[in-house]
Amino acid sequence: MDFPFAFVSGRLERAAHLRGGGAPARDPRARALVFWRGKLLVDGAERPVIVPLDHPALKDCREAPVFLGLTAEGPRFAADIALWRPFEDATTIGQFTDASQQVHPAFPGDHLDEVRGLVAGLPALEGECVAVGRALLGWHESHRFCSK
Fold first, then answer.
1. Bridge-based pairing state of the strands 31-36 and 39-42
2. Is the CB of residue 71 less than 8 Å from the CB of residue 125?
3. Which of 124, 129, 24 is nearest to 75 (CA)?
4. Backbone phi, psi, residue 33, to 5°
5. 135: nearest Cα among 119, 120, 122, 148
6. Which of 105, 127, 129, 148 is buried most deeply by CB count within 10 Å?
């Protein structure tokens, strides 16, 4: 399989000049991919669920959604609903391959699923957004404080 989109700049306009100003988040077309413990929220067809930045489930975020860049449909963000705790047993979470699926109450028809099994079936732009979003959220989680 060929994954040319995963960690290289492609169709996502990173828009570095817009970072820090807050303008992308004020755009009414702004949407976020939803992650939890590295898993992605997907629908029944295994497609990423993209939500407005004011979606009630994003109250479970510890930090504000991370700006990924611009698409033709508007700004894209990655949101980590880290404060949410599932009801079901999640003993395999954190292993290299996690076969469990969690359902957030705000998304009853959708589920959180392991990214590794999904990314190969996504169109290039979606795959790039998912890969960059997961990587940036992971970096933010593991590098919370400056060592200086």
1. antiparallel
2. yes
3. 24
4. -80, 140
5. 119
6. 129
Q: 20 falls in which pLDDT band (50, 70, 90)?
A: confident
Do residues 14 and 69 lie in contact, with contact meaning Cβ atoms separated by under 8 Å?
Answer: yes
The pLDDT of residue 94 is: 59
Residue 110 CA, chain-centre distance (Å), reads: 14
- Dump pLDDT digits (tens) for 70-126: 999 999 999 999 999 987 655 655 556 677 889 999 999 999 999 988 888 888 899
* Tokens matching residue 30: 């702004």
- The answer to whether 43 and 110 have CB atoms below 8 angstroms apart is yes
At 44, is the secondary structure helix, strand, or coil? Answer: coil
